[in-house]
């Protein structure tokens, strides 16, 4: 038994040795194979793929960032800056991470402050640096939020942000481009507003010229790259370099005069309030060039603060029926075609029937003699329609188009309305009872002023413009092309009508016009008052209590320099301010003559005979 057992043990031992040798051989072969493969891979990596892998690693370390382009500015005709770009910083933090890090430090070293104490310390410091902009409690509310990321506080000056982030690196400060409006609401309805867009990481125009000229103002962002530590957003010092430089946007020079714009906005708002008007608009044009020196609405907004209301520009977007201001079309056509002369005497009854419509004058009277100048000076609807019937529908329609009615001026302001002039083929018999007296058609205050600019400019209407030039980043000044003028009437007709319109502001016994409050001592003034009934939606007829009050004037009449257009929407009709815009014109004309040192007229306007 013992021998047999020993034999078995011997056999077993030999078998184990043989198996071990085989396993050792296989293991060696595998090791050699692994070494061969590894060597091959090293040769591949260090030889054939070394360049590609190096480039890939470099790319992983590279971080591309935009270089924001400086947005162009807006300046007025004298170079005063109305809007420009700046930069600010927006504070941010990771409240959860702050809590974790500070609590871990406190656990390791109890002498260090807890997360709560540290956040209170940060909040006190930020509130001191930004005194008046954010409270300590507001900072604490942000730092104790249960979120991984939060912005907090207002946009701040970069120097203030640097003080905070240098002392507390756990607080971040993100770049923000800003848009500054040093004059606040001055010309805001024209310029509009731009603000920071988080999704685009840049300032973009939202309304007004800021929006419509956004591509011109924005410029082109550049690109910079930097190396960052692997697995981190930390920039390796000294690795930042520029790939493409940013190209600044162009500046835009407007035709407006800031001082006049300020005065017009103030006077218009005050007058509208006195007249208890729903709204009001005004425009001042250069009589020769059509340049807009000022354009205002009684309600505006401040683009420096949050804005949601009064951001439109009714002076160019909201048409109305002009009333008797529109009689200049009939007057011009009648003189141009030799139908009447200024001193032609008309026997004007108290009313007139046109088709199925009976039209009366604003005051009760029997048949009375009025010169054609008197028809304008006293604003007789009946006398105007008598002459319009001789002028004829087609000639009236053609002339209204020449005056720009029913067409956009092309001024370049967003949302401009064309107003309306009913198509000739749609006229009924009674249509011509309304159009010659300024009802049944509509226009903006800009278009209305444009009609009188044509009369002031020897019969040539120059489409208004408000953008003078583009100033490119290299300083090149690119003048906007001046629009071609439109010959409306002959110079002789324009002079005649302009002189007739002096009767409107005349204040002579028995020869008094409808707008003597527009007169300005020392200057000849031409102008026209207007009162237009508004449509009452309840009856779909003209209201007897809601009106548009208008005035268009030329200063001075003997040597035109400016044209002023005014409109009041639904003033308290019957009150002094609510029944006429002539006093407002007087205030504006007085400012114009002083600011631009316009010489007084060489002689007083001769007395116009309205009623012989």
From TrEMBL:
<dbReference type="GO" id="GO:0071555">
    <property type="term" value="P:cell wall organization"/>
</dbReference>
<keyword id="KW-0131">Cell cycle</keyword>
<dbReference type="InterPro" id="IPR001460">
    <property type="entry name" value="PCN-bd_Tpept"/>
</dbReference>
<protein>
    <submittedName>
        <fullName>Cell division protein FtsI (Penicillin-binding protein 3)</fullName>
    </submittedName>
</protein>
<dbReference type="GO" id="GO:0008658">
    <property type="term" value="F:penicillin binding"/>
</dbReference>
<keyword id="KW-0472">Membrane</keyword>
<dbReference type="InterPro" id="IPR005311">
    <property type="entry name" value="PBP_dimer"/>
</dbReference>
<dbReference type="InterPro" id="IPR036138">
    <property type="entry name" value="PBP_dimer_sf"/>
</dbReference>
<dbReference type="InterPro" id="IPR050515">
    <property type="entry name" value="Beta-lactam/transpept"/>
</dbReference>
<dbReference type="Pfam" id="PF00905">
    <property type="entry name" value="Transpeptidase"/>
</dbReference>
<comment type="similarity">
    <text>Belongs to the transpeptidase family.</text>
</comment>
<feature type="domain" description="Penicillin-binding protein transpeptidase">
    <location>
        <begin position="281"/>
        <end position="589"/>
    </location>
</feature>
<dbReference type="GO" id="GO:0005886">
    <property type="term" value="C:plasma membrane"/>
</dbReference>
<feature type="domain" description="Penicillin-binding protein dimerisation">
    <location>
        <begin position="66"/>
        <end position="225"/>
    </location>
</feature>
<dbReference type="GO" id="GO:0051301">
    <property type="term" value="P:cell division"/>
</dbReference>
<dbReference type="Pfam" id="PF03717">
    <property type="entry name" value="PBP_dimer"/>
</dbReference>
<dbReference type="InterPro" id="IPR012338">
    <property type="entry name" value="Beta-lactam/transpept-like"/>
</dbReference>
<keyword id="KW-0132">Cell division</keyword>
